[in-house]
User: Which sequence fits this backbone?
């Protein structure tokens, strides 16, 4: 994806081969921009429905539709 395409609340999927170890997971964009005190954008803050938020660069994200799941449900690996 491109910076201009990412919006807070958007459903996204992380590329399967992402170096973070969270590849293939789905989540929602919480925020976009700078998170460590530097003046350049570094990524999108993603809620992957775990007790942590992760920062992923836009090139490693693709838009997905999580709205197909019933309210209160999320996709996860067992």
Assistant:
């Amino acid at each position: 994806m491109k910076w201009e395409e990412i919006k807070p609340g958007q459903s996204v999927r992380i590329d399967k081969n992402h170096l973070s170890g969270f590849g293939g997971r789905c989540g929602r964009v919480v925020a976009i921009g700078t998170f460590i005190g530097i003046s350049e954008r570094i990524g999108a803050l993603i809620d992957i429905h775990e007790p942590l938020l992760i920062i992923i660069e836009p090139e490693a994200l693709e838009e997905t539709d999580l709205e197909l799941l019933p309210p209160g449900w999320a996709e996860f690996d067992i």
